[in-house]
Amino acid sequence: MGMDIFIIYVIKTLLLPLSSLLVIGISGLYLLDQHRGFAMALISFSLLMLLLFSLPLVTKYLAATQEIYPSINNKALENFSAQAIVILGGGLRDPAREYAQKITLKDNTLVRVRYGAILAKQTHLPLLVSGGMVLDSKLPSEAKVMSDVLNDEFHQTVRWQEHRSRNTAENARYTQKILHKEGIQRIVLVTHALHMRRAVEQFEQQGLQVLAAPTEFLSGPGKIDVFCFLPSAKALEKNSLIIHEIMGRAWYKLRY
């Protein structure tokens, strides 16, 4: 694992809503005796933001700012004349007891793999899976585990494995190198709807033509009811993912 990736993961964890708001709130408690007015402002701000980020209604509208690509349709597939399908990794699970202590896919990756398998079956396009050894070099690459799952569980053969990347920018860079040798420039890209905007930007920077095939949307036209206004841990988790993506795009504009 590269130290740069480790440091980035630590920093982004501290900046995301739960950690950052806890730090702000605790700082307010610490300052109560010396600077009561300022301390109360910090505590109030942290509690208010924690409430907002816990509301499903906020998830619905905040996600819409990032999920700009619609779900793919058959006509778009036909008109684009894609040459390959690229599925991006989203993390691995630790050894799973129910799978005989084998390393397997996190839910995020499994969602992408499942949708990629459906598209591959529908289009008969060759598959490339992208994902390296991000935080633990002793684990198999995400690409290796994704390939095994696609072959063994979804009965779809993977033609290429990109197993060097540690983030979205590297996904795009190393994937382009593999596909360039094959004369492939037009790809169907599979990742979460929330992540698709950043992914498309990176792959297009590498000179690839991309048809977005997003999955698992957080935004949508669903009805607004009383549950949209009730705080939930799930909404806090989803809003943290959205903030993570907004931060990620800002960071990528500076670095890449």
Topology:
Blueprint: H1 3-15, H2 17-30, H3 36-53, H4 56-64, H5 74-80, E1 84-88, E2 92-96, E3 102-105, H6 107-123, E4 127-130, H7 142-152, E5 158-162, H8 168-181, E6 186-192, H9 193-205, E7 209-215, H10 233-255
Parallel strand pairs: 1-4, 1-6, 4-5, 6-7
Antiparallel strand pairs: 2-3
Helix pairs in contact: 2-3, 4-10, 8-9
What does this protein look like?
The chain has a 5-stranded parallel sheet. Helix content is 54%, strand content 14%. The protein folds into 2 domains: 3-65 and 230-255, no CATH class; 74-215, HUPs (Rossmann fold, 3-Layer(aba) Sandwich), CATH 3.40.50. The protein contains 10 helices and 7 strands. The protein has helices at residues 3-15, 17-30, 36-53, 56-64, 74-80, 107-123, 142-152, 168-181, 193-205, 233-255; strands at residues 84-88, 92-96, 102-105, 127-130, 158-162, 186-192, 209-215. The protein is α/β, with parallel strands linked by helices and 256 residues long. Helix 8 crosses helix 9. Helix 9 links the parallel strand 6 and strand 7 (209-215).
